[in-house]
Amino acid sequence: MEANVINKIDTNDILYTIGTILFVLSLISERLANLYKLHWPNLRTRRLSPSLEKLREKEVMWLALVCGWIVSLLAGADIFYLLSEGKLVSIYDVIASSNLFIIGRSLIGIFLSGLFISLGSKFWHDVLDIILQFSALKRFKATEASQQEPVLAAAAKEEIELKVAKNISSIRAIKGYLGYDYLSDQNGAVCVVLQFKDAISVADAKTIKGLFRNTNVKIESYTSPANLQ
Question: For residue 198, is pLDDT > 90?
Fold first, then answer.
């Protein structure tokens, strides 16, 4: 269970790190595209003709893609490496490896990252907000659950105590009865431990199990301990 919690925490951290990196790179890509638009007024100014305006939008889209790929390549934003390591890769190290599989995978990862970067900084800003809200919601639920655990444990113990008080006369009638106690495990679950001098009969064990139906009960004796869970 602890390993699963650690993996979930690491996954959230990696997603936030990747979102932050792509957000920063998308800002750089947008600035690069804006610099290019300054020298080409036809891309910056809307056109009156619908057909020309569609053509301009396509050119702007391709400009965003190209700038995204350039920034992704220069920064070493391999999406596969980001997902596995949570950081950028060194292009020089990839080329120096002389491994065609690694080089090919990195190029594909950089190409995909360029597509993601071209979505724009507003998109990645919204993604980061969603990740932060999701993490905050998970922390709130975890805190709420931890606060409820003592209350639930106390309620469970109170329920067992009521059953003991209700059935104590029947239990005392069983031969060799010495007393009872409560036992809590690591998860906070409470069970009642009935103590007898000698091992009780099968019939008496069934009787006790019927009295404490849906309740954790243990029977202990000096000769033959038995567990009715």
Answer: no
CATH number assigned to the domain with residue range 153-227, chosen from the 4 options 3.90.1150, 3.40.50, 2.40.10, 3.30.300: 3.30.300
- Residue with the larger pLDDT of the pair 61 and 155: 61
Domain residue extents for the chain: 2-119, 153-227
Q: Which residue has the tokens 């959230």?
A: 12
Range from 70-74, 87-91, 170-174 carrying the lowest mean pLDDT: 170-174
Burial, 51: exposed, middle or buried (Cβ in 10 Å; 0-12, 13-18, 19+)?
A: exposed
Each residue of 152-174: pLDDT tens digit?
566 667 777 777 788 888 888 88
- Token pair for 217: 């009960």
129 by DSSP, 3-state: which? helix
pLDDT at 119: 92
pTM score, two decimals?
Answer: 0.55
**For residue 29, which of 105, 143, 116 has the smallest C-alpha distance?**
116
Query: What's CA 83's distance to the chain center, in Å?
Result: 15
H or E segment to which residue 193 belongs: strand 190-196
Q: Report the distance separating Cα 220 and Cα 192, nearest Å.
A: 11
- Alpha helices for 39-120 (secondary structure H): 41-44, 50-75, 79-85, 91-96, 100-117
How far is it, in rounded angstroms, from Cα 201 to Cα 102? 70
Alpha carbon of residue 15 to chain centroid: 11
Most distant pair of Cα atoms in the chain: their distance: 100
